[in-house]
Amino acid sequence: MTMPLLDIRDLRLSVPLGRFALHPLLKGVSFQIMPGEAYGLVGESGSGKSVTSLAVMGLLKKPLAVTGGQILFKGQNLLALPMREMRRLRGNRIAMIFQEPMTALNPLSTVGRQIAEMFVLHQGKSWGEAEKLAVESLGNVRVPNPDRRAKNYPHQMSGGLRQRVMIAMALACGPDLLIADEPTTALDVTVQAEVLRLIKELCAARGTAVLFISHDLGVIASICQRVGVMYSGCLVEENETRALFDSPRHEYTRGLLGALPRLGSRSEQGRQRLVDIDSIIADRSKLTESRFITPRELEGSQP
Amino acid sequence: MRLGFNFWLGATLTALVIFAGVLAHWIAPFDPVLDADLMNSELPPDATFWFGTDGQGRDVYTRILYGAQISLTVGIVSQVINSIIGVTLGMTAGYWGGWWDDLVNGLTNVMLAIPSLIFALAVMAVIGPGLPSLLIALGLTNWSWTCRIARSSTLSLKSQGYVQAAQTLGYGDLRIMFTQILPNMMGPILVMATLGMGSAVLSEAALSFLGLGIQPPFPSWGSMLTDARQLIQLAPWAALFPGLAIFLSVLGFNLLGDGLRDSLDPHMRTRKP
């Protein structure tokens, strides 16, 4: 068996509440991503998906702190890595794309220059060379007229185009791992499908592993080989995508799948209510009580 | 972009000052220092001496043209120094936070508590009068507002998507500050610098008036006022015209700054009729 590219072991994250109390955000999350594999992380808002990805990037902001566990990237513990080394990995070996393509680009710089900066920064290329490479990478993400588009400013582009530019920047240095944090949420459905196909094809062609974070099960199903389901800071279930959709083992996963409207289900099974899950937000309001988060009564087997 | 009447008035006045300063050597009818003729002293404005003459018989119009050079140099150089100090401190404080932020904030508060003219006086007293020390004194005293604005802009820009994206792409702190944050806050900084030019011109006039700025016989608007003070009843024009020059140039800088702010601020842009 090959060594996993990313091996998260028992990752624990907390945010301090008051002087002595720690509010746990991740309660021992472990999963592995193999080289070239697309791994999906689903879960509702606040379940800890994005925080996990930020921990991998080493970009947790101040009150958040890792309280335990390891993040091994190619066998190297990222949590113990000095800041300079970590910065060299970011954008170069591990890249990330965000939900909001509208704000993720510097409004005062042309997109060509922003992509070119990646080559200058991580590969020590000259600006002239880097700008040629930037046009090339715009072509790779299938932006029409790449040499003309490279001279555009972000406000001259649509959301879908900007997300392509983001992908071009993220994949510029051929990273081993791409973290995609809900990259298609802000896009409309047709553009969403194109961008998804683009990520899938480019990563498959280059052997880039993907950590795909989403609350959209349909998107996850179309792109990922394996899926982890997060709930309240725990990874409650993990399985091959097909198996997970066919036979969810955990009650929460079953709830998530039940909450998904299906085309044609009414004619097959008659009128049915979609399953709803009590919101975690309600639990958060009880923060003053000693129990910070009251997990719902979880039935079913633990993973 | 719609620029209002105020902006154009300010731009015109500023352009006039620049024009006067740059071309003084060619358009001035006399020499500002050497053409002193006591036979011609305290003459009222006429066709030869447009703004009259002062106590030593020097042409006030000529001296005002040359005085514009001093005012412009002081205004621009002191604001460049101010902006560099203010932006460097404010941007790093806002970006890094922590003890550095506390230190810079404390320093800014101290600077704001000391009247800038008194502080400049103290600096001048230590390093002596003259143009270079005037530039240093004024450059060191007025950076606190720029610093505040740079800090608050940085704080808000820090949460912008592209700054966070730059972090995930492996940009270093300095690279983020210079490529992502600084260009995006140039608007307010530029406005502050333009507005500050007005107050620098005023401070220069005040310091020269007190005898600490430009040394006689070289003309500056402030020192011209000092000279004219004793003759204010005999030759009011010798005080009136430098005063007007100070007034109009400061007004020009301020209107220009206001106009720039209005046109660069997207919220103000829509409010205009």
Task: List the topology elements.
The complex is a heterodimer of chains A (303) and B (273).
Chain A: E1 6-17, E2 21-33, E3 38-42, H1 49-57, E4 65-73, E5 76-77, H2 83-89, E6 94-97, H3 111-123, H4 127-140, H5 146-149, H6 159-171, E7 177-181, H7 189-206, E8 209-214, H8 217-223, E9 226-231, E10 234-240, H9 241-246, H10 251-258, H11 265-269, H12 280-284
Parallel strand pairs in A: 3-8, 3-9, 6-7, 7-8
Antiparallel strand pairs in A: 1-2, 1-4, 4-5, 9-10
Helix pairs in contact in A: 3-4, 3-6, 4-6, 6-7
Chain B: H1 5-27, H2 60-96, H3 98-113, H4 116-127, H5 131-141, H6 143-158, H7 161-168, H8 173-181, H9 186-209, H10 221-229, H11 236-264, H12 266-271
Brief account:
The complex is a heterodimer of chains A (about 300) and B (about 270). Helices cover about 35% and strands about 25% of the residues of chain A. Chain A is of the alpha/beta class and about 300 residues long.
Structure description:
- The complex is a heterodimer of chains A (about 300) and B (about 270).
- Chain A has a domain at about 90-180 and about 190-200: 3-Layer(aba) Sandwich (Rossmann fold), CATH 3.40.50.300.
- Chain A is about 35% helix and about 25% strand.
- Chain A is an alpha/beta fold.
- Chain B is an all-alpha fold and about 270 residues long.
- Chain B has a single domain (about 5-25, about 50-255, about 265-270), classed as MetI-like fold (Orthogonal Bundle), CATH 1.10.3720.10.
- In chain B, about 75% of the residues lie in helices and about 0% in strands.
- Chain B has twelve helices and no strands.
- Chain B starts with a helix and ends with a helix.
- The interface of A and B includes residues 88, 90, 100 and 104 of A.
